[in-house]
Amino acid sequence: MTINQDKPFQGSSKDLVPDLNYRQIKRIAKKYKIPINQVYELITQYNGLVKISDQDVKVSNEEDMVNSPRSDDEEAKKLLGVKAETLSKYTRLLSDKHPDIIPKILKGVGVDIGSKDPRVNLRSFLNLNSILDFGTASKSELIQFWTRILDPDNIMNVEKFQVMDFLEKLSKGRFTRSNNDEFSYAKDVWKFFISKEVVTPKGDKLDIHKLRASLEKGSIDIKIFGDIFKSGFNPSLNKDDDS
After folding, report:
1. For the chain, how far is it from start to end, CA to CA, in angstroms?
2. Across-strand partners of 9?
3. Predicted structure pTM score
4. Which of 26, 91, 204, 231 has CA 20 to 30 A from 195's CA?
């Protein structure tokens, strides 16, 4: 099938798909390093979620979509967006995740989770997918995302329990529950952090400054968090613990 590079891309009448031509779609694909066919699918998915969210506003150009203000800006409230609740319920990416970690994940891409009606605009939606699904975000973007999640209040020294609770729920999804093996996985991750010297001297807090420095240097692979999100484990932990 030949694609007309100047013809707007439009979905079915049931979707709120923006009128974007092939060149615009290609620019979005380049920006987020996502295959063009996947960009089409993501935009269709996004607008389906918008409809479920009872929004009837249609974004008509790429600039509004991709370069829109962050979701926590006042101006962003006027823009198209998916309800955070709808996103967490109907997307493959988040539907099986523990409800306690979803607000932190959304905050990681700039969503104002403290508002009465938190919304996810297309920029945040594409960021979320490039980080968690396609793994195409840059190293600096990944570091910013995960450290923001681990330290949502920007206190720099995060309590061990808070970190372990998050990691356990991240690894086991929505079925996480307290039992005799509570934090069974997170304990291994914490030992890994100790071995990499990114905890405070007493070993009771995660030092975000040290963690960020280790991630930037590569002594800790930033992919560890994405692996935990996707698979619930990271094989490299055992190797590093033995070293």
Report:
1. 54
2. 20
3. 0.76
4. 231
Spatial separation of the C-alpha atoms in residues 87 and 49, rounded to whole Å? 7
Tokens of 112: 């104002």
Say if CB 179 and CB 223 are below 8 A apart.
no
* Separation of alpha carbons 57 and 11, rounded Å: 15
State the Cα torsion 43-80-145-157 to the nearest 10°: -160
∠ at Cα 150 (42, 204), nearest 5°? 160
pLDDT tens digit sequence for 209-228: 999 999 999 999 999 999 88
SS3 38: helix
pLDDT score of 80 more than 70: no
Q: How far apart are CA 163 and CA 157, in angstroms?
A: 10
- Per the CB < 8 A criterion, the answer to whether 22 and 9 are in contact is yes
- Tell me the β-bridge partners of 120: 82
d(CA 215, CA 220): 5
Mean pLDDT, the chain, whole residue set: 79
Q: Please, are residues 195 and 243 in contact by the beta-carbon 8 Å criterion?
A: yes
DSSP assignments along 37-96, one per residue: HHHHHHHHHHHHHHHHTT------SHHHHHSPPPTTSGGGGGS--EEHHHHHHH-TTTTT
- In the chain, the amino acid numbered 85 is E
The token duo for 83 is 């309800």
Q: Which value, in Å, is the radius of gyration of the alpha carbons in the chain?
A: 19
Going by C-alpha positions, the residue among 87, 92, 94 that lies closest to residue 71 is: 87
Which backbone phi and psi does 211 adopt, to 5 degrees? -60, -45
Distance CA 24, CA 8 (A): 9
State which amino acid sits at residue 23: R
Separation of alpha carbons 25 and 51, rounded Å: 21
